[in-house]
Design goal:
The complex is a heterodimer of chains A (409) and B (286). Chain A has 409 residues and is mostly helical. Chain A has helices spanning 2-18, 21-34, 39-63, 67-110, 114-131, 134-145, 150-158, 162-170, 180-194, 197-209, 217-245, 261-266, 269-302, 316-333, 339-364, 368-371, 378-404. Chain B has seven helices and 16 strands. Classes of the chains: A mainly alpha (409), B alpha+beta (286).
């Protein structure tokens, strides 16, 4: 019974944990501009994150080594360092976006400007990372993040023209008045939002620290195979409600405060309150994960001690990195930069940085020195290779598309 | 010192670490995580020190760790700056990277396992993780809730550095230590002056005990940069796409058995070899 509860808890937190500021903003924006014509990208991204997370979770369980430990080992210090700088830069950008997202969610609830909330949010976050038993918070925020299900409820209550929505899904091309390049740019952004590198750093580091073994593979796979697709459905629900409410009237979502409006129409005030709780939990949880991931990647690269189970003084360098990242995030957000804009760039840069960590994990997952008889099977390798191509193409296209479309305009 | 009983691992797996007969030093040792007897991360293998035995054969003498070791491998301006800053921050006049004696290694798996604990290592190697201890003392400990109160301060190094840990390592002729990284990438030249590629990896054989491993052969490739990701060994098969890509960028992998190595010019980064065999999977662990 306890075991079933543990497994269910893992799946539920994986659902809540999948959605973060990147998924919320990108899906809402895409829904309002393109309807569901980009839904296939979310599906593709979810398949990608399942593959990537399953491989790195399996590598963590069998070899006891986390992602960045292996990145340096396979790529050497020079290429590895370039990789570290790029991946950590993207994770830091995401960290900044998540803290901004938490502040925005509180602003919507309180009408007090988000810039004033930034130091408060960052201080609370740092205390959590410094001292609080993280497993507890991970579960609390994962479960509270489930309140985003209100988007699915709102969609059902809005009682849209289901046939019309399905037709948007099955006509994957830009609507009249939109260009193919803008369509492709947002495809890259959605892909990056679903497949953010920090999710994998966090997942595999957690696995190493919780000492997963071959026995835990079943539970790990259940979390990945059920939790992530259900999280992807939540993302699609966000896109669908904005498609139903904003697309016909031609309103483009460019602020987080617009995202819960369709819920007011579908479920009423209480729905908006629930959605805001969901925003808060999802972004705060993701802020914890990204903050830790910055520390994980540097510490693993240099071989330092790291972890959320060891006292800060036993992992001093790791905790100094987290402290400095938090200070940096506050400094950036206090320039009054728009967190939504930061988010939009962070998801595109995520797509850009993906191949750097994906390839080493794919290689290690095939190395019997590490994996024994748990190396990738044929299916994992066929899908893994297909995704290697997809990820490289998306990564190569990200910057040119960003320049051509001037950031999606 | 008696072999310490292994406490319950909390940061690593519990199997007793082992040695294999053969390692490719670049692939299996460089950049691997070093952990103490309890599985606690200590450092990365930033370089290896190879030293000539009395019969001239190169043997693994030590693991080199720290910015002073990895800086040289970074190369370029970044590498020079790393080493320069590290030298500046050290108080001794002519600092050398910390060298962890090869005899302290208890086994090699997905990590390099040391037999002593982190506390013992810090006593023996006072410069092992100076940055960690500096940050602990001046940044982390002053903040409430750092765990300061929960710990006895046993892990601080004692004032007299250099209490030696007992090892099984033989005493090597002094001053002969060379860095593995200065051999990797070295040009391989045949007697007729032809260029035969560059050293891509160094094959070691021996065991048990890292100090018993000798250089058995040099693995060569046409290009110095980039490892073969383990795809030069038959064991690593899939995925097909990656294997083909690695094969396309690393054609003509070669094998120079130690007998065929005439001379290693460490300063010029050049190896004179009698011949280069094609790399096959059946090279015996001589």
């Amino acid at each position: 019974m306890k075991k079933i509860f543990g497994v269910a808890l893992g799946i539920l937190t994986a659902i809540g944990g999948f959605v973060d500021i990147g998924d919320l903003v990108t899906n809402a924006l895409v829904g309002s501009r393109f309807g569901l014509a980009l839904a296939w990208v979310v599906v593709l991204g979810v398949i990608g994150i399942i593959l990537f997370a399953e491989m790195s979770g399996r590598v963590a369980a069998i070899s006891g080594r986390a992602t960045f430990d292996l990145v340096r080992e396979r790529l050497g210090p020079r290429v590895g360092l370039a990789n570290l700088v790029a991946s950590m830069g993207v994770t830091l950008l995401t960290f900044i976006a998540e803290i901004g997202g938490v502040a925005l969610a509180i602003e919507i609830a309180t009408s007090v400007n988000e810039v004033l909330w930034v130091p408060v949010v960052a201080a609370a976050l740092w205390i959590v990372l410094w001292r609080v038993r993280f497993a507890v918070l991970e579960n609390v925020f994962g479960l509270l993040g489930l309140s985003l299900i209100v988007f699915a409820v709102a969609l059902w209550k809005l009682d849209p023209d289901w046939g019309g929505l399905w037709q948007q899904v099955t006509t994957p091309r830009p609507r009249p008045g939109e260009t193919w390049t803008a369509y492709a740019y947002y495809a890259v952004a959605l892909f990056g939002a679903a497949l953010t590198p920090y999710e994998v750093f966090f997942f595999s580091s957690g696995g190493v620290e919780e000492r997963w073994t071959a026995k835990d593979l079943g539970t790990m796979r259940l979390n990945v195979f059920l939790g992530f697709p259900l999280g992807g459905l939540l993302s699609l629900a966000v896109a669908a409600v904005t498609a139903v409410v904003f697309l016909p009237v031609g309103v483009q979502v460019d602020a987080l405060s617009q995202v819960p409006l369709p819920i007011a129409q579908g479920v009423g005030k209480i729905g908006v309150a629930i959605a805001l709780l969901g925003f808060f939990a999802a972004t705060f949880g993701a802020a914890c994960e990204t903050g830790l991931s910055v520390g994980y990647s540097i510490a693993q690269f240099f071989g330092w001690r790291w972890g959320k189970f060891v006292a800060p003084r036993q992992a001093a360098r790791f905790h100094v990195v987290i402290l400095l990242s938090t200070v940096l995030a506050v400094a950036v957000l206090l320039t009054t930069v728009d967190p939504v804009a930061v988010t939009e760039y962070s998801v595109v840069f995520s797509a850009l940085a993906l191949p750097l960590t994906y390839l080493p994990i794919l290689v290690i997952a095939n190395d019997p020195d590490y994996m024994g008889d748990r190396v990738n099977g044929r299916l994992a390798n066929v899908l893994g290779s297909v995704f290697l191509v997809v990820i490289v193409v998306v990564s190569a296209a990200a910057i040119p598309l960003m320049i051509i479309t001037r950031g999606g305009q | 010192m008696a072999e310490p009983g292994r406490r319950a691992d909390h940061e690593s797996h519990t199997r007793r670490p082992q040695f294999r007969r053969q390692y490719d030093a670049g692939l299996h040792l460089l950049d691997r995580q070093i952990v103490d007897r309890d599985g606690i991360p200590v450092a990365k293998v930033d370089d290896l020190e190879l030293a000539p035995r009395a019969d001239g054969r190169l043997v693994v003498a030590a693991l080199l760790v720290g910015p002073g070791a990895v800086g040289a491998r970074l190369g370029g301006r970044l590498g020079r700056w790393t080493v320069a800053i590290w030298r500046r921050l050290r108080s001794d006049a002519d600092p050398a990277p910390t060298r962890i004696d090869a005899g302290l290694v208890g086994g090699i798996e997905s990590a390099v396992h040391l037999r002593p604990s982190l506390v013992e290592l810090r006593r023996t190697y006072p410069h092992l993780d100076g940055l960690e201890r500096w940050m602990r003392r001046y940044v982390v400990d002053p903040i409430p809730g750092s765990g300061h109160a929960d710990d006895e301060r046993t892990d601080e190094p004692t004032t007299d550095p250099g209490i030696p840990l007992a090892t099984d390592a033989p005493v090597l002729p002094a001053g002969g230590g060379r860095r593995l990284s200065s051999l990797l990438g070295a040009r391989v030249v045949l007697p007729d002056g032809r260029d035969a590629g560059r050293v891509n990896d160094v094959r070691l054989t021996g065991g048990p005990g890292l100090q018993t491993y000798v250089v058995e052969a040099l693995v060569t490739a046409t290009r110095a940069e980039g490892s073969m990701l383990g795809y030069d060994r038959r064991a690593v098969r899939g995925p097909w796409l990656v294997r083909v890509l690695v094969a396309a960028t690393h054609r003509d992998a070669g094998y120079v058995p130690w007998r065929a190595v005439r001379l290693i010019d460490w300063d010029a980064g050049c190896v004179e070899a009698d011949r280069v065999d094609p790399l096959t999977d059946e090279h015996p662990a001589s």
